[in-house]
């Protein structure tokens, strides 16, 4: 299946132009996006079709995934 991925902040360099479509297995989860793009997935925030999700969220053909880098602050 193909999903559209948009990377934010410090992650944009991991995908040309910071966004694009990637091909994944039909049973892929959000974790597969993280693995495919070598993202620090345990600490990123994932938004699937406008809703924040965990790494084990199932993906479907044509989904839109945004990935935000881990944040720190005080």
Task: Describe the protein's architecture and organization.
The chain is mainly β and 74 residues long. The protein has one domain: Ubiquitin-like (UB roll). A 5-stranded mixed sheet has the order 2-1-5-3-4, with no helix packed on it. A hairpin with a 2-residue loop joins strand 3 and strand 4. It starts with a strand and ends in a 6-residue tail after the last strand.
Short structural summary:
With 74 residues, this protein is mainly β. It has one helix spanning 30-36, and strands spanning 2-7, 19-23, 45-48, 51-53, 64-68.
Rg, rounded, reads: 11 Å
Q: Helical proportion?
A: under 10%
Largest sheet: 5 strands, mixed
For the biggest β-sheet, the strand order reads 2-1-5-3-4
Q: Supply the CATH superfamily name.
A: Beta-grasp domain
Name the average pLDDT: 93
Encode the helix/strand succession as letters. EEHEEE
Write the layout of secondary structure elements.
Blueprint: E1 2-7, E2 19-23, H1 30-36, E3 45-48, E4 51-53, E5 64-68
Features:
31% strand; five-stranded mixed β-sheet; 74 residues; mainly beta; globular
């Amino acid at each position: 299946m193909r999903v559209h991925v948009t990377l934010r902040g410090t992650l944009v360099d991991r995908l040309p132009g910071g966004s694009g479509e990637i091909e994944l297995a039909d049973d892929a989860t959000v974790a597969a996006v993280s693995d495919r793009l070598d993202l620090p997935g345990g600490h990123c925030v994932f938004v699937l079709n406008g809703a924040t999700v965990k790494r084990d969220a199932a993906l479907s053909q044509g989904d839109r995934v945004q990935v935000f880098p881990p944040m720190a602050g005080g």
